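Data availability excerpt. The first of two example chains:
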Amino acid sequence: MTNYVLLDPEEHKTMKVITDRSADYGDNIKYAMTFPFEFRSIQSCYPIFFQKDADSGTFFPLALFGFENDENLFLSDDGWNATYVPTMVTRQPFLIGFQQDQENPEMKHAMVSIDLDNPRVNEASGEALFQEHGGATEFLTRATQNLELIHQAHEHSRRFVEALIENDLLESFSLDIVLNDGSNNQLLGFYTINEDSVQQLGASVLGSLNEQGFLQPIFMVLASHSRIRDLIDLKNATIETSDSDQDQQA
């Protein structure tokens, strides 16, 4: 459950946010939404796929962290073991909310909201949101800039996905993985970009995609497929560690 409220300098002046990465703070997630602007950084660590929203029927790109629900193979007792953490992860516990203009009901102003029920939010430890004598801290300023970037990225991502669909580049994707212990893992319900279809695109289409800033993200998605091997290696290492711990306890 979430409990988002508009951030208020007076009401929340003593509030702090823990920035450690842990399952206790909700980081044990299988995937997170991502955006084309960060695909270059994402593909250096994670596979990029697409998923279809069950309610709206729209597609969105995601960075994959594991094979099972509540599994983040990059998470350990030491934190998040990757050189880049997606913006939709780092933005927690903040969200952009909208407040209606009192003079013009048709207008809404973007405001920073915070989830009071998020385990990161407290008054004892972590990064302060407001300075002692007023004003946002550097941490809150960076968080606000991050939210603004996400807000703008949604529209670009929407147009990117529309271009993929228009050019028939998205296809359903499934993968059966046999681990070192003989167990099977499956990736189902995801979509990816068909590399053969990309190679068959004409010069005019490629030029149009490039002008819109979509060509590089396409190549970043394709390049990210090599990270599936990294996920498999991490999963095997997790199983081996678990087996070793059980042997020691026995």
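And the second chain:
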Amino acid sequence: MYCSCHSFLSRRGFLTGATALAATAARAQTAPRRVDVHHHITAPTWLDAVKKARLDNPPMSNWTPQRSIEDMDKAGTATAITSPTTPQIGFLSAPDAARIARESNEYAKRLMTDFPGRFGVFAMLPMSHIDESLREIEYAFDTLRVDGIGMMTSYGDKWLGDPQFAPVFDELNRRKATVYTHPTTANCCINLVQGIGDATVEYGADTTRTIANLIFSGAAQRYGEINFIFSHGGGVLTAVAERLQIQMVTTPPYKGRFTRDIVDSQLRRFYYDTAQVANAVTIDALAKLVPTSQIVFGTDYPYRTGAEQAQALAQRFGAGDLKAIDRDNALRILPQLRAA
């Protein structure tokens, strides 16, 4: 005789098991796994210098390690590779810039020690001062064991392909370094449009200026061992890509010196972070211009949150691409994370 109690118990067991499996799957999906390559921190002595120059802002001034970790946990971010935001230290004299860079990098390294596995370091350089930058590269990589270098897209009236920076990039190329870049306001374009903050348009434009400058100066080809990361999906790159691919290579002075294949090969080897471009218009355009393998997760914390970036990306990409963007692409160029 069949007892209905067995059916009830079996169904109850099945539901309990299914619930447990669902919970396990949910935990797996939300377990910290992302690598955030665009995450800003504020070292105390750097903040003092920025405040003295009246270049600070509330997110910068109110940052704490605990707030970073809270945001990371909400977004499922395992590790944030930290860097100071603009203006970094371009406004300081050589001795002061060298000192603040060293203290900021040592502070970032202490975060790695105090919060194991949660933070990495893109070291800051006093880029306007070449000898000091070379000394800091040596200290940052050989003593602090940083993940890479974090620099601005321009310094005064010079972009990253300028010959002035060649000694720095020669050394970084020798080390096969990862170089993360963050936009800033070039001398040309401070308060360019009254009532429109520089971050609204100029930051994106400056990122694209330095991409174009690196390519058409020949620097990008010379420094083929450097892994460049450009913030905010390359700025306005997707809007002007055809000008680089076609117009620049078919008119003087670059006609005969550069081809579309050269331009495309550089655009497709660079990396681009997702901070503030995870919307359908921009991220979809970027994913058509470059392979998904070149897109890396970035948040721009504390100016934006990790959760909003993660949620927006989940609406645009399938599981395989998300896995690559969230973590795997970054691991290719951040070897210390692979070993962790």
